[in-house]
Records
---
Amino acid sequence: MSKPDPFAPPAPEARLRVPSADGTQLNIEVHGPSGAPTVVLIHGWTCKTAFWAPVIRALREGAPDLRVVAYDQRGHGASEAPAPDRYGVPILVEDLTAVLDATLEDGEQAVLVGHSMGGMTIMAAGGNEAILSRTAGVVLCSTGFQGLPAASCVVPGLRRIPKTNKRAHRFLLGSSLPIGPITPISRALLKHTALGPKSNKPLQIANARIITACHPKPRAAWGRVLSDLDVSAQVSKLNVPTSVIFGTKDRLTPPDAHAQAIADALPQFEAMVTLTGVGHMTPLEAPDAVASLIRKRVQSMAEAAELAKESEL
Amino acid sequence: MADFDDEDGYQGSAVLEVDERRFDVRVELRGFFQPIDGRYHWYGRIAADPALAEELSAGRRRGTLTTPQGSAPAEVGDPDPWGRFRVEGVSTPPFESWFRTGQPPASAHEGGLPEHVRVAVIGAGFGGLGAGIKLLEAGIRDFAILERAASVGGTWRDNTYPGCACDVPSHLYSFSFAPNPRWSRSYSGQPEIRAYLEEVADRPGLRSRLHFNAPVTGAVWQEADARWLVTTERGQLTADVLISAGGPLSEPSMPDIPGLAEFPGAVFHSARWDHETDLTGKRIAVIGTGASAIQLVPQLQKKAAKLVLFQRTPAWVMPRLDRTISAAEKWLYAHIPPVQRLARLGIYASRESTVGAFVKRPALLKAAQRIALKHLGGAVNDPELRAKLTPNYVMGCKRILLSNNYYPALAQPNAEVVASGLARVEGNTAIAADGTRHDVDAIVFATGFHTVDMPVAKKVWGIGGRSLDEVWAGDMRALRGTTVAGFPNFCFVIGPNTGLGHNSMVQIIESQLSYIVDYIKTLDRTGAAALDTDERAQQAWCDDVERRMGPTVWSTGGCKSWYLNAAGRNPTLWPGSTLRFRRQTRRVDEREYTRVTALSSQKTLVPNGIGAEQA
């Protein structure tokens, strides 16, 4: 038998349709047995649950078994695309609330993992009791909380002319031009944008498949939200132990612009992992590193729960 | 004694006491335990009896029903169109039942729904009830029928507009396995068809599996354990197989008319008739000239001060050869059943023989146009009105309508035909697309149904969490009108390309039901958890349908009908004979499906208490 494709999405134990606050139907996948510690995976812009496939595999292989919840952000994957005015930072938080409501038992806590826009979702939930009360730990992958277009360096050679750089990246984010089909050219462009320079062909193809599957309209709508995103007020109220992971070759959220700022802003900053030669798609490119960081947070969650139990006795 | 799952009952003579009077009656009673309210329900009918009909005219009343086996308080309802009274009650029934010996354990879930069933059926109209009977016949007893309303009947329950009737003779427009010898007319009205369906629902074993007020809000395929998670407004259940019998004529289609919201008078759709509003002496606008419109126009014309009919396209209207069925015929049908089967066969054969004209030789329909034109000429003398009512496309392209009083009603002085659609409304003025203005007090939309976009498609999510609506992308397709690739163990009753222009839909429903039963038997035989339609088989089927659609009158007739979708394709009709469809759906061809196995056979999910652990 041939080796299974590490990027093929594993079949979930359960699939749910859950309406968010405004009725938009979200697609939620639940992997792993009930009763196990829960990890919630929140993907980034132009991605979908399949983006987490290697991480879900890595998490499920380790011990103890985990319950992994992944969902499609609205307009992505199998979730419904809302009306044009139903995109925005508060809506990211509403959708996350709906997912936690549907998948966590009363009083149950989870580790939240966000990549890029998913990380911004978690940071935007800072100060939101409904979410923080159910969050025992956070892992942020390749993300930022403000000034995204100005810091990006997808378009080469513009970093020294900040205004033009900002304008160029704003245009890229908000463009609704279709990308597909997957050709060597589009694959190379998407690799340049999102992946590290050493990424192999299967990885490039998986990356291109995920990104080109995103419908251009929601992509542009979310891109415009990201252009102006600033959750610096909320991130300072994200009062939960948080680990951060970055790739050094990230062009979309370069670590030199965002990593230090996030570490400084977080009230309970725990650890920073920087992966040499890795691009923006850390969970795709280095699933084992991301999974082991998640494992550590799950372990601290278990220890904290243990402590809380002892103090109760 | 039958097991708890079975309904029990009594058939024979009884004494009914109402208002201190005694009637000797013959009854047929049944009962079952209903887990929703935790009580035993019994019900049945009192055979038609002139003495009883005279005394108990109308309205529900309480009394006592006594049989040789016992006595119980009973409620007597209104008589049905055939003069039989419905009788029902709760708790101890007036007949021997296991209820007296001991109550069965109620394994009900929230909202009274079972936790898991082999088959879940959406809808309790012709399709859903037929599915229930066929499943029971095949020995599949673990099923639930989910109905959004509080009673059975589907489109024949919802359409209550004045004059509502069927365009297919009743002896044909009924199940072959549930003949009704009492049809009063060759073309029955809606109340009689609805009563027929209520009677069908009274078949043993059906009522206890019917769940009312349970509109389905979503159905999500669970890859891991290969079953459907069905959510309703009354809770949820899982099912191995999901049958959608929602029907194509279930969601009324309302055009978006500017200014309608500000219209001061009554506005409603023909399928949601507002019986509270008295239209007598009012000026009424009727929008549309389809099958509903031509039935309600003559009724409204009689009582309206003025009736304005907005007509985008005139319809071909043929004479309706309707007559009452004599008592002698009814006696024959009831006592010598083969006679009724023969009568049904005759109607079927005459209908079926016309199919060639629709699908192969539309020129033949042009000959029939002469009959319709004569029909029009005989009733309408005014040449201007006659011109307005004369269609400019080939007959059959849009549904052929049958009526004897539509043209005469339009020829009356209080009726006006506007040969243009309704464009907008200003205050109480309805403005046609041609600019003419008409002051009216009420607007009735006889604008039909969502036929080409199947509202259920937005609520069903298959493999990968993709909805049927998304997969179809405005162009619905299915293998043999029944199954769709990417949606394992999901079957349609009246799916894409199963509609008819020439014969009874019940024929199609029965063919599909035998296919679906064979589908479930195939699952049992092969041990597969699910069957998913092969993409190529579905494509080949659709290509063949497309090819046959080419020469049909619906494609070549030169009209825009509710059969066509936005892309101009016809996803609704079956381009062939019902015999051909029956042949094509006799058996499930396993080569057209791929087997799906459940990943986990021992455990399921529990997000927020959903699902259950299994031993």
---
Amino acid sequence: MKKLICLFLLLGSLGWQTFAQTRKFENVMKMSVRNTGYIMEKDVLVGYYVFYKVDKVDRKTEAFKLELLDNNLGVVKSIDIQRPKNSVLLEMEYNGKAFIMSFFDGKKTMDFMTFDIAGKKIGEKSDSDIPNMEKMMIMQGTQNDGFEYSTLMSRGADGFVRQTYAKNEKLGYSLEAMNNDITPAWTYNSDPKSEMLEAANMLYATSSTVIAHVIKKKGMMSKKYDTYLLIVDGKTGKKVMEKSMQDQSDLSLLSCNVNEEKNEIIISGEYFAPGDDQANSKSVGIYFMTLDLTGKQLTFKKMSWAKDLAKLNSTDDGEKKSKDTQNAWIYWHTVEQTKDGHYFAIGEQYKKTLSAAGVASMMLSGGRGGAAATSIHVYNMVVLEFDKDFNMVNNMTVEKKKTEVLLPAGSTSAGTAILGKYIKSTGGFDFEFATRDRAKDAFFVVYKDYNRKDEDGKKSDSMIGSIVYEDGKLKTNRSPINTEGSAIRFSPAKPGYIAVSEYFKKRKTIEFRLEKISY
Amino acid sequence: MKKNQVFLGLFLAMLFMILTGSAQERAITMYVPDTLVKIAPDRFEKIKKRMDSDILALEGRPKEQKEYISNRYKNRLEYFKISIEDGEFLIGGEIEKYLNKLMQQVLNANPSINPKIQLFVSRSTVPNAYSTGDDNIIFNIGLLNKVQNDAEIIFVLCHELAHQVLEHTKAGLYAKAEKYTNKAFVKSLNKTLKEEYNVKEKLENLIMPSLISDMRFNRQEELAADSVGFLFFSKTKFDRNAALSTIELLDSIDLFYDRDPIALSKVLNCPDYPYRAKWEPQEHHSSLMVIEDEKDVLEDSLKTHPDCKVRKEAILRQFPQSQAAIGTLFMTDSFVFRGLSMKAESENINSMFLRQNMGRMMFYAYHSMIEYPENLFARVYLAFGFSRLSHLQKTHKVGTEFPLPLNNYEVNYNKMLNFINNLNREEATNLGYCLLRPVQESLKKYEDYLAALTYSAYTSNKKEEFSSLKEEYLKKFPKGQFTDLFTELVIN
């Protein structure tokens, strides 16, 4: 057929049946969580990536394609990459100027590659001297398609910073900053002569500041550990301060947010009775602390379960809420701050309870392993609103269906903080993510609800709940999501949306789409 | 002083003409879309007969080539069959009649062209026209609302008729059959497909040279179609300059909807629900979008058409500039043509409605309201879009009918999509409702108007109003396109 017009017209500015929010990738043999992900720039989601094999180059090499999508799932770039056979993508990070990808060759080497936003390779580095602990974690993790590896953070447009282990006298940690071309910028090592085992988990990084959560313990088998908040200068790698998270007793560290406009760090967690430690004891209450970027403490507010938070156990009419959720603990997922200076702490209730499945498992194993006799029940979402001085001005409980998380044997006596971390690490909480729209002074919290029936009693394949702060008001909503795929996964999207990826095994296809969660 | 008075007089006379003209044009017009025709036995039979004779003409060619070409002919017939059954063509309506009149003018002026050539008007909103090589020409509705006069339509038709007369489709198909059924080519293709390594690159190396040569050939054919088409065109009564303006139009057609900044406040002007500053549409932006746009770096060797500048120069060589102004731009007059353009705009809206692409439908409706403020059809469907958005927000299915912005969409369309996707349910509901109020009883005879009124009352949860409008609709249009929908809708 002869066409009158130029080809570029046909390349398509006009959409037909296929809409922008659905993007399909075919010939995908296996869906691995690590091969798809979202791309953040500061705390704004700017797009997604999909990494998949397209061809075999020779006996030892395979050809891959890295597709970059914008935050509406429009393809903006495809990058061709060749990798040795059996190499796996561990993670990808973007800093507004460059992308970094890390790969593991399946044996002993980690490779790092950086690309500029036009897709040109600007740096490459191999590291065959990975600490054994990290190698072990990668080798175990990559056996599992759901394994998400997170050791790289962008430090503004200057480059990236990687957390790894250090071969000190005992196990230590190292923060390694690199430029966009992967040349080293600085390295911060824990004390090589430390008598404690030390490990760090980065919480925040920019070109000026890197914040990490550090734990120290005497030996691998010791239960007790100490928590520290570490602040490192992002330009030089010099320590700004290391704060021991102690008051009258331990302070656990559950969430860390940074208000960049005010240069303020907001941390929260639980506090314990004098003499109690976080590994083995029940907490007395929760705390919120703000610090400046030099680590100077600005505010510190404690709230006890028994007194200050007792209202969470009763309804607005003063009646007691369901017995199940009475005295439940709260795991804080995030603390959002609005323009009026108010803080919104978003958490999820959980409580230790006797488990029928755990007891059966113990009886069958003769008490030698399997699951613990207790399990964790995860209950409702909780939102606490505080004024600028952390006085609670409002609280909201968003009901959702209870779920159960089995605990490993031997964990029955573990404290609330450790149990909370355990549930978080195993994906046992229903909280999915929080996004924010600073310009509109809005935030969106998304969680899964296993009560899949909507208000009209109609059942869906999945139910997504949202807690939205918009126009100065808190709103909640539940959205049914239906799928015909063999696997479904939710991931963050631009504010007000959720990204849904479905894998269709028979068709070997991954489909991405965006669903609006707030109206 | 006298001079100034003359100028003032002329100015006032012009102002009077503009004002009276605009008042005349702004009389409300409700377009009634062409009936959805899904059968055209005579036309289909004609295409089938032509295919049979084309297949017979293949006698004597090698078996593989015969099979290759026959299959393409059968695919072409299937395309027509499905398109007719899907209501893809506007058959027998006003627009088709108008275009056929224009086509007849070309045929009358050029007796050498087969007078039995059929013209189909497609509901496709892609600005395009094409010859299928079997005495059929397809003109998309998406091109019809963009041409500036009848003369430009005539040039497009002449260009496509030239492709048919020069048998470009047939020649291209025969050449491809020879190439792709060639034993050596098939052997190397099969060998490549069985290889283990670098299959993709090897396939590209095998196919790309042939593809580039096809494209080069295509570009030569386009210049030939321009040249012969211009000869046909110059025998008509139409202004030859239109050939050049058509090429220019096609060169900038991607920018058609971006000529002026979007101004939603001009159309969302309900007295009871005024425009809000927070609705002001924002640019679609992502830091990843600074990545170069691939379509701009498309290799010249892969373009199907020559550069528009080259085409223009080639046409200019065919006639002296002194003759350029000879001829007319309109078959009747500009007012009649304006009516056709407005109908084409409405059919673009209708096309997107039928395809359930509500985002595009609302964008075309907005555009039509700006260009043709008297077009009530556009207002009705803009309102319908808001009501639909409200309903889909309630059922969490917005994504099935409303796209999100994409970097290769028009700037204004992306802004409109940003605006739509940022509306909350209350805003969408109110906009859908207010755009059609106050209700005009005299317009309720139009199905689309009454349907949009009914649907907006439903999404606004106005029980009594919905119930009475629903009853009225079902009574007036028992077999209407919304009858099934409204029969099921109930406000509890």
